[in-house]
Amino acid sequence: MQLKMILPKGRIREKVFSLLERVGVSVRADDRSYRPSCSSKDFEIKLLKPQNIPTLVALGRHDCGFTGYDWIVEQNADVCELMDLGFDPVEVVAAVPDSLAKKDLKKRNLVIASEYRRLSTAYIKEKKLGAVFVQTYGATEALPPEDADMIIDNVSTGETLKSNRLTIVDRLIKSTTRFICNKEALKDPWKRKKLDELTMLMRSALNADDRVLLEMNVPAKYLDAVVNGLPCMRAPTVSSLHNNEGYAIKIAVLSREVPALIPQLRERGARDILEYKLEKIVS
What we know:
alpha/beta, D-Maltodextrin-Binding Protein, domain 2, Alpha-Beta Plaits, 3 domains, five-stranded mixed sheet, 8 helices, globular
């Protein structure tokens, strides 16, 4: 038995490939291949555009896949979301040419262009706009002002909109990359076990990205002072050194806290402080 998985082509592909590599699923593909090789016999892999993935997973053509939350909403896909990976954060926004930004759009007959048909028609209805929808197939920001009065598109920094003299007038949804599965796949014991294991491993790998392991030696007389100042996930690991010459302490801490924490630990009596990169944290 195999788990049929769709991986996304495009800008989030390498991040997904890298994460899978970290959890023991090595995927190899050239730029022209839609059927990459996989190091694990438990998975059958196919590459498709993220836009195609939610519907195909919902239909059961594949058991699971990675796609943006915006496409799940756009397609109203009946899937189970197993995990938010946090990759490729974007917002779906409505934007108009700078010259229209302060105008009353309800008094105009608009042409609204977007790749998001469902989101756009819902927005037109909600805002009670007099508008004609035009389906686009990429480069939506190129249409205004000659071919569209408004676009509904995803943005990360907004710099592309600014360079095309477009102003955001509304924000529809926020989106990140999600790991999704077909609901029927969860009813199969073997598939559910594989999905649960893969989700757990990916979550543990991503949890480790924000933390490092600190290890230090502490003389007995400084133990309480050091331990009381530790921002660890739970209780620190404390063990006796050889010949009862103090204690060894291990803690997992947020990476951003380390620059301020290490000098504090030194002041409290910690010595021989080592910092390690973590690969996974399974909680």
